[in-house]
Input
Amino acid sequence: MAVNETISSSETMMDGDLARYLDVGRSAMKAMALAGVPQSPKAILDLPCGHGRVARHLRATYPNSTVYVADLDEEGADFCASVLGCTKLTSNEKFDGINFGIQFDLIWVGSLVTHLRDQDTKSFLAFIARHLSPEGVAVVSVHGAFVAGRLLEASFRADGIYGLDADSTRQVLSGYLNSGYGYAPYPHNAQYGISAAKREWVTAAVTEAGLRVNRQVDHAWDNHQDVFAIGKMSNLHPM
Output
C-alpha cells in the first residue's frame, strides 16, 4: 500500500520539506525492523501518534493490521483516524489511568520517553506491560549516549540545546552521568522537558516493570535516538 502523503495543516513536525518529513517516518520503520518486530502484527499502537508522521507508514506497511493511534493532541489522533485510516483511542496524561483493554502485537513509542521524568518513564513501562501481547514487541525511542554527547558539547560552550537553557542542559547531563537518567523541564512547560538515559538504567527499569529488553540499537531513529525492543519476560530473544 502506498504511503498517504496528506499532511495536516496543524502538523508541527514538518518545516515545509515533505521529503525530509517522510524520510523520518521511513527511518522509524527501519528502526523497528532493526529492533525485530512481529512479521504479521494484528494490532498495532502508535503512541503518541501526533499527526501521523509514523502512523502513515505503519498503515501502508501493514495494510491487514489494525493500526490504533492515541495522543493527548486530540486533533492529531482525529487526523490519523479520519485521513490515514487508523483507529483512534483516547489517551490520558496519567499513564496509570490508561487501560485500552487491548493487547498489541507492536507498539511504537517515538519521542515520548525522551520528554519524561524518570518516574513517568517507569509508569509508562507499566502501561506497556499491561498492553503488550505475549509475543508482542514495543519499540521505544530514548535519548542515549549520542544525545548525551551533544549535551556535553553544549555545556562546554555554556550553551543550551533541545530547547533548554544552559543550566537545564547541564542538569540533564549531570543526571545522566550520575544516576543514569537525566531530566530537565522546558522553560515554557513544567510538565515536559528533555531526558537522557543510559542503557543500564533503561534495562533495569524495563526489568522492574516485568518486561525485558530484547534488543537495543544505538541512534537507530533518524540517526539520533536509540531504540529499545521490549517484550514480555516469556518472549526471549537474543540481545
Notes: The longest strand covers residues 132-142. The mean pLDDT is 95.
